[in-house]
Amino acid sequence: MDAVTLARWQFGIITVYHFFFVPLTLGLVTLVAVMQTMHYRTGDEIYQKMTKFWGKLFLINFAIGVATGIVQEFQFGLNWSEYARFVGDIFGAPLAIEALMAFFLESVFLGLWVFGQDKLSKGVHLAAIWLVAIGSNLSALWILIANSFMQHPVGYVLRNGRAEMTDFFALITNPNIFFQFPHVIFSGLTTGAFFVLGISSYHLLRRGDNMELFRRSFNIGIVAAIIGTLAVGLFGDAQGKQLITSQPMKMAAAEALWETEDPAGLALFALIDETNKRNSLEIEIPYMLSFMSYSKFSGEVKGMLPLQAEYEKKYGPGNYIPPVTISFWTFRTMVGIGTLLIGLALLGAFLVWRGQLEQTPLYLKGMMGAAVLPYIANSSGWLLTELGRQPWIVFGLQKTSDAVSPNVTANMILMSLIGFTVLYGALMVADLYLLVKFAKQGPDSA
Amino acid sequence: MDLNVLWFILVVVLFTGFFILEGFDYGVGILLPFIAKNDQDRRMVINTIGPFWDGNEVWILTAGGAIFAAFPNWYATMFSGFYLALVLMLFALIARGVAFEFRSKDANPTWRSLWDGAIFVGSLVPSLVWGIALTNLVRGLPIDATMTYMGGFFTLLNPMALLGGLTTLALFILQGAIFLSLKTTDDLLARAIAITKKVAPVTTGVVLLFTLAGYFMVDSFTPLGILAVVLLAATVWLTQQNRFGAAFITNSLGIALTNLTIFLSLFPRVMVSSLNPQWSLTIYSASSSPYTLKIMTMVAFVFVPIVLMYQGWTYWVFRQRISREVHLEY
User: Fold this and answer.
1) Domain limits of chain B?
2) Could you tell me how many CB contacts below 8 A there are between chain A and chain B?
3) Cβ A111–B314 below 8 Å, yes or no?
4) pLDDT 10s digits, A149-188
5) Do B70 and A92 touch (CB under 8 A)?
6) Partner A contacted by B74 (CB < 8 A)
7) Is pLDDT of A268 > 90?
8) For chain B: N or C, fewer Cβ within 10 A?
9) Contact yes or no for A361/A205 (Cβ under 8 A)
10) What is chain A's Cα-based Rg?
11) Given a cut of 80, is residue B222 above it in pLDDT?
């Protein structure tokens, strides 16, 4: 494999792995903060026990999220030095602001929260966890501002052989961010909610000592799950509508739409033939893609082949079609899971409302498994976002193949890639071991 | 003063803060296997830095971010040039960060000693790497006309740079030992004090050697280096007097001045090319546009004081020593 391919694999592995932990951090910290707030307001001991139990699981997850986040601050220089030179004037700013505004906040106040229980007043201790929650979410905001520039560059001019920032306000109000940020935040909440629901279901099934604690945890989880899944869906839908016009190639690939159609049908299933640039088999709902894009049963959705012709004219010869099969199926995986999770959340709320939850073991068992679904959806979403932008690293400005460090050889990347894979694999084993151990032990072990 | 100079100063400040603060928690990590006799000891040692290490580490992440934002070419050349060394350091930091949280969450002795090993190695490797890296910036590296590093991994391991690595290592170990003398009790305290008194003269010697080598080999800015040695000598004296609070301050200043020596010898360059002086990266050739520097300056002026306030406050909250009676989180 050549250096570009290896560098992309390394970026993919490092970043997807990091993003296994981030959404749970975002969601779970909010839920833990809610639990602690309830303890603060009611004085009920169960909420304190709850805060401790979920807080411990949160910390185990947070540790790996933070540790693997360190790489993110450096890897654009390590493997993507030409990218760093080309867009550093723009891209470096949100990264530095993220460190200054968010990393300090979350790390310092997490230290205060973990170690300060006996040293801080109850109110300050509560404020600490909320500041961690704010810090984590701010961190997501700034990194997504940076990422949005790659998807949809704004506020820049090409000067001195690089992209230079001309409008910071345009950068932070990139139209992409208004949908991507809430979409990510609420998928975090969903991940946290289903984590709490899954583990609570396990304990409710076992009918152990802490039934009331897990009942209440389940209730908090189900409220978060309904808010989270519905909001993810709504913002995802809005994002899709925006992408149709702002990133048409990505959406065309996600829909395996080769030719421009008006009205456009939605392919539910497609056998994609990327070499001959066509679908050899397709099951389609007519009008549906136009409807999803424009909320009416007509409207042109551009296909990949006309876009390819358009881009060749604009950017010169080359292949501008991203990997279609992966884009198509990751999109369907994400949306499919999202829809399923909405259903599971509503069903859970219904069961709680009817007082039938604990009499429905099948649902509880299902929810234990459902805890992994948000992870698959989150990763699919990112794969679509990043692969759907190819061959560009910054859309229309720099190609991924021009962005790698010229002096970092394939062998060097291979060494680091093997190292990261082994280390991350070992950490995953240790993480799962601890999570399962403490999740099973329940709140009395602390 | 233009903004390029200001951002150079800010990067120096971030590195100084990083070395002083994370210096002691690296030092504590390195001393862990030597000072602790049993698991209870080890937990107490780790808990002295428990509330601090993560916030301290953000200083280097912010320095990395600041270099990226203000001097993207420096960021690109340095991190791609130091590729394997930096990757090695990242492995160390990742394992170390997880280790603090994970080691006491299971009682199995093998589990704990594995994570203790990660804390030790994870503290040792970056302590060496940062000294090696910064010294190489001044000493000069094969950088071509396109700002691309042309050397390999072993180019970095020249005697001068290794001495630089040894210098940061020695300073951090001493910083950690003094910190432990301030934060522990009973027999741990006695051992911390004994180690501090042994380490202080050695560290002073290493810093003296580094200052002299800097003068003869890379023409570095020596008056500050000499002052660093004087401060280190004061640290030796203060530790002999059992005045560890004052020793922590003089040693921190010694660290700051050693760091400043390196950066002042660099200025206005940020990476020296050994192939052609014209090819060295400077605060102008490596920098962002004036607009970006202006935006970042405004951001820094608002947030750096806020960060300093709340981080300083945590040191006040956790000012107590760790004793056997204290509940241990890690």
Assistant:
1) 3-317
2) 224
3) yes
4) 999 999 999 999 999 999 999 999 999 999 999 999 999 9
5) yes
6) no
7) no
8) N
9) yes
10) 23
11) no
Handedness of CA B230, B236, B241, B246 (dihedral sign): positive
Q: How far is CA A411 from CA A3, A6, A78, A83, A364, in A?
A: 8, 9, 14, 20, 49
Query: Residue B69: its chain A contacts at CB < 8 A?
Result: 88, 92-93, 95-97
The pLDDT value recorded for residue B323 is: 84
Question: What whole-number percentage of chain A has pLDDT above 90?
Answer: 86
Backbone angles phi, psi at A269, to 5 degrees: -145, 140
Q: How far is CA A396 from CA A80, A158, A176, A399, in A?
A: 17, 12, 16, 8
pLDDT of the residue at A41: 95
- Measured between CB atoms, does B76 come within 8 Å of chain A? yes
Q: Cβ–Cβ of B79/A74 closer than 8 Å?
A: yes
Structure-block tokens of residue A281: 């088999």
The interface predicted TM-score of the complex, written ipTM, equals 0.94
pLDDT greater than 60 at residue A388: yes
Distance from CA of B294 to the nearest CA of A (A): 10
Range B3-317 has CATH code 1.10.8: no
Please check whether residue B142 touches A, CB under 8 A: no
Q: A112-141 burial, b for 16+ CB within 10 Å, e for fewer?
A: bbbbbeeebeeeebbbbbbbbbbbbbbbbb
- What's this model's pTM, rounded to 2 decimal places? 0.94
Cβ contacts of A336 within 8 Å, gap of 6 or more: none
